[in-house]
Each structure stands twice: as structure tokens, then as C-alpha cells.
Design a protein that fits this description.
Layout: E1 10-16, E2 26-31, E3 39-49, H1 51-57, H2 62-65, E4 71-72, E5 76-84, E6 96-100, E7 115-119, E8 123-125, H3 131-134, H4 138-151, E9 158-162, H5 167-178, E10 182-186, H6 192-197, E11 202-204, H7 211-214, E12 218-223, H8 229-234, E13 236-244, H9 250-257, E14 263-266, H10 273-284, E15 292-297, H11 301-310, E16 316-320
Parallel strand pairs: 9-10, 9-12, 10-11, 12-13, 13-14, 15-16
Antiparallel strand pairs: 1-2, 1-4, 3-5, 3-7, 3-16, 5-6, 6-8
Helix pairs in contact: 1-11, 4-5
Bound molecules: NADP nicotinamide-adenine-dinucleotide phosphate (NAP).
Length: about 325
């Protein structure tokens, strides 16, 4: 005989009924989906706001989100498992976890909710530390890690990172240092203290970049801004490579594949449980710390989106759900 289905509670969840400005975001009660055999239910401590979230909400990612409403927001999160599907191994109720939902179901799923049901393969044990702040790391850290794997960043490499104080940049700098790389950066003067604390070798002002002196100097270039892409490519050594994560770099990554000279690839972040575990190890060993620009409560997620859309500042914007 089939067991009666367990009644799911409704929990505050962020949705929008139409694409538009941050004000379209609404917190409404929604039933948490029953976990399938490979899912876990997580009580969310926090999620971060990424540029992809704001672009999706504004209707600039319809090829990924489709047009069906309502849509949800929030790609990476930290929290605690409250229920485990029957086929899930290696995760248990009460465990602190973090995760990245991936972009495949952008708009259909969202981490900006008090509780979410998520495929256990997208979740990994979180390291120790403030669980809310840890939500700053999954998407940014996976992006930087996958970019560095593509670039082959290792001990002694000299790498140039642009937008080095931003959400991805501030994590990338720490991860490059953890790999033993020498890190030069392009970032505004107001970020000098942060970057010095993170152990960068040098910082140059985006308005006074010594391009001639930098020509051919770098084994690896990681661009997070989409600015000066062709000049940045000239900074790459003959045996080196460049990665951009900015959508503005997509045409160049295609063109560079048919041109002589250093390769430029566009890296699009993918979920990775191994990648999350590697990030956790960096946090546990004190080599990676979340840099938080601002925190907003779930009820004020519209302000968090507005700040990210403003596009300036250091570190990540967090939505504190707890
Ligand atoms: N491909 C992927 O998988 C992937 C993953 C994550 C993010 N992204 C994309 O990567 C980009 C960066 O994301 P993010 O989360 O790091 O954004 P963010 O938190 O807004 O940071 C951007 C940083 O870049 C700096 N900046 C902007 N223009 C600059 C320039 N010309 N020279 C030097 N610094 C400059 C900003 O500094 P100021 O404060 O001085 O303006 C800011 O610190 C976005 O376009 C995002 O969509 C892609």
C-alpha cells in the first residue's frame, strides 16, 4: 500500500511575476517540494546575489530562463539539511552545507527562500565559520577555480586579475595566492588596502594601466570585467593563456580561436561537488575568507539586487535568510 504523501509546509520564498526592476521581487509563501530520492531539503542560512540573478530578473537571460512566470532567484547558498532523500549518500540531517544550483534551470529554481529542495549532487559539506557569510563563496569560488584549471595556474605562475576586488575577483585573488601564484591586479585605488592584505604583488589603476610595460609578462590573465580585452591579450606570454568570465568576452574567445597568438577562453561556471570540497578545504586552512560588501534580510532582497546592479564595490552582496 502506498504511504499517504507528507504535507509540505509553505515557507517564505522570493518570486517574481514579470521581468523588471528589483521591485518585482516578492516574498510569498510557497510549499517546499517533496524531496525525490536523490534530493535534500535545506533550511537556507543565506544566498548571495550574482550578476546573473539581476540580469535574469531584468529579462536579459530569456534564452536560459524562458518566459514562464513566476520565476525564482538565487544561485548559491549555505544552510542546514533538514531532510534527506532515500538514495542520498554522504549527507545527513542537521549537516551544514553549501551549494550552487547551476544555470541550467535559471528562473525555475531559486535559493532565495527559507527552505529549498535541491539535488544532493549540487550540495557539499560547508566548512567551519559563519554559515551566513559562507554563502559568498560557492559561485564565485567555483568560477575562479574552473578558470584557474583552464589557465593551469600553479606555484610560481605570474597572473594578472582584473576587477580584483569584485565578487569573483576578491575570491580569485585569494585562490591564486593559495596556488602559490604571484598576483598582479587591475583595480581602483580605493581597493589598495584589501588587495595588499590579500598578498597581491602589485595593483594598477584602471585609468593608468602601463600596457607597454605589461606586454607579454603573464603566464595567465583572468578577466572579470570585459574591459580592454585586446590589450589584456597582449599581456599574455607566448606560452600563456587568458580566460574571461565576462559575457562581453564571448566574441573575442571565438575570434582568438581562429587567430594566431594566445588563446582566450570564456569560462561559464558549472556545478561541482569536488570544486565545493576544494573550496571548503581552502576555508578550513585559512587561505580563503568571504569578503562581504553588504548584507540584506530576505524581506529587502530588492535592495540587494539594486546594489549588485549598481556594479561597484568589493566582495559579495549577501541575503541573510536566517
Ligand atoms: N562566466 C561565469 O561563469 C561568471 C560567473 C560569475 C560572474 N560572471 C560575470 O563576471 C563579471 C564580474 O562578476 P562579479 O560578481 O565579480 O561582479 P562585481 O562584484 O560587480 O565586481 C566587478 C568588479 O569589477 C570592477 N571593475 C569594473 N570595471 C572595471 C575596469 N574597467 N577595470 C578594473 N576593475 C573594474 C568593479 O570595481 P569598481 O567598484 O571600481 O567599479 C568591481 O570591483 C560579471 O559580468 C558577471 O556577470 C560570470
Amino acid at each position: 500500500m502506498q504511504e499517504p504523501s507528507r504535507r509540505r509546509e509553505e515557507v517564505p520564498t522570493v518570486e517574481y511575476q514579470a521581468f523588471g526592476p528589483p521591485a518585482v521581487l516578492q516574498v510569498i509563501p510557497v510549499a517546499v517540494p517533496t524531496p525525490g530520492p536523490h534530493d535534500v531539503v535545506v533550511t537556507v542560512a543565506a544566498c548571495s546575489v550574482n550578476r546573473l540573478d539581476t540580469a535574469a530578473r531584468a529579462g536579459r537571460q530569456k534564452f536560459l530562463t524562458g518566459r514562464r512566470m513566476p520565476q525564482r532567484t538565487g544561485l548559491d547558498f549555505s544552510g542546514t539539511i533538514v531532510e534527506v532523500g532515500s538514495h542520498v549518500e554522504g549527507l545527513r540531517e542537521g549537516q551544514r552545507v553549501w551549494g550552487f544550483l547551476g544555470t541550467q534551470h535559471l528562473g525555475a529554481h531559486g535559493a532565495a527562500a527559507v527552505q529549498i529542495t535541491v539535488d544532493a549532487g549540487l550540495v557539499a559539506p560547508a566548512p567551519s565559520g559563519n554559515l551566513t557569510d559562507l554563502a559568498a563563496l560557492p559561485l564565485a569560488g567555483l568560477t575562479a577555480g574552473q578558470a584557474f584549471d583552464r589557465l593551469g595556474v600553479g606555484s610560481g605562475s605570474r597572473i594578472l586579475i582584473t576587477g580584483a576586488a569584485g565578487g569573483v575577483g576578491s575570491v580569485a585573488v585569494q585562490m591564486a595566492r593559495a596556488r602559490g601564484a604571484v598576483v598582479d591586479t587591475i583595480a581602483a585605488p580605493r581597493y589598495a588596502d584589501l588587495l595588499q592584505r590579500q598578498g597581491v604583488a602589485s595593483r594598477c589603476d584602471p585609468h593608468a594601466i602601463p600596457w607597454t610595460r605589461m606586454t607579454g609578462q603573464y603566464q595567465a590573465v583572468l578577466d572579470t570585467t570585459g574591459a580592454h580585452l585586446w590589450k589584456l591579450r597582449r599581456c599574455v606570454a607566448r606560452t600563456g593563456a587568458m580566460v574571461t568570465i565576462s559575457p562581453a568576452g564571448l566574441p573575442m574567445s571565438f575570434l582568438s580561436s581562429i587567430m594566431p597568438g594566445p588563446s582566450v577562453s570564456f569560462v561559464s561556471v558549472r556545478p561541482s561537488r569536488d570544486g565545493l570540497s576544494a573550496l571548503a578545504d581552502l576555508v578550513e586552512t585559512g587561505r580563503l575568507t568571504p569578503i562581504i560588501r553588504a548584507r540584506f534580510p530576505l524581506a529587502d532582497i530588492a535592495s540587494a539586487h539594486a546594489m549588485v546592479e549598481g556594479g561597484h564595490g568589493e566582495g559579495k552582496v549577501i541575503v541573510d535568510v536566517s
